[in-house]
Amino acid sequence: MPWFEYLLPYDFSPLTVAAYLGALIVYGLALPRLPEAERPDPWRITAFLVGLLACYVVMQTRFDYYAQYTFFIHRGQHLALHHVGPFLIALSNPLPVLRYWRHRLPAGQSRLAVPLAWIYRALQQPAVATVLFVGLIYFWLWPAVHFDAMLNRQLYWTMNWSMLLDGLLFWWLMLDPRPPARGRTLGHGTRILMMALVALPQLVLGAVIVFAHESLYDIYDVCGRAWPIAPRTDQLLGGLLTWIPPAMMSIIGILLMLQRIMNDGRPQQKQADLAHSSNGGMAS
């Protein structure tokens, strides 16, 4: 195949292409119109674009073909959709862009958004978000469910979109930059606990896949693999991608929260130092 054909969709989805193109247009149109204080810096813009591109590539290029016919590539696809892409998008803090467009919605559409806001708040409850994040991984990797999802086109697309949307919801809840004291956001300690809790079941699931003596996912034996690879090796690599990288993403998120905790304490410490020096000067 010529190299450019690898960039073309294997299973073209007009809705998927429109969704990604729409997100790119909405982001690009809002950027120059944002106030200077709210405009994201180049690093944040890059994080958003790389996260969006990573999700698009695994869904609408030749990568999707290999994901459908090789287990470890499939796990790489979900790693991008559920972890890396949403993590980068959330880290870019697209809140000013969302706020810009929200203020420009017609009144009727704003009223229609109320039920969506209720659903959003329900899904963002800590217990619900934690169980849903891990539960979807376990659900789609349950051998019987996975077998059906890889054979049914609609179920396959449902699986991929559910992973992407849940990843966006979870990582935004974790990386929301608004201070807990001022915004209605989770405390840093709660976020650290949640990221630790979602890492443990993924470690267990990855270990089960890695150390399984039998083939857990017969669909790749039935339909064949994209290239010659031993089924045991394919499953081993897929288990490692389920085991190690997701845990690393939680560790990175926890480190970011620890950094925020340290930064949140600096203004108060600076004020205390100023007050102390001022009192010392008055006393002298």
Write up what this structure looks like:
The protein has 284 residues and is mostly helical. It has twelve helices and no strands. The chain has helices at residues 14-30, 42-60, 63-69, 71-91, 95-102, 107-123, 126-141, 143-151, 153-175, 188-211, 219-223, 231-283. The radius of gyration is 22 Å and the shape is globular. The model is unreliable at 268-279 (pLDDT under 50).
The helix content, as a percent range, equals over 70%
Query: What is the count of structural domains?
Result: 1
In terms of structural class, how would the helical and strand content be classed?
mainly alpha
User: Could you give the count of β-strands?
Assistant: 0
Series of H and E elements = HHHHHHHHHHHH
Task: Write down the Rg.
Answer: 22 Å
State the major sheet: none
Q: Give the termini distance in whole angstroms.
A: 81 Å
Uncertain spans: 268-279
Please give the count of helices: 12
Mean pLDDT: 90
CA-based shape: globular
Percentage beta strand: under 5%
The gist of it:
It is built from twelve helices and no strands. With 284 residues, the chain is mostly helical.
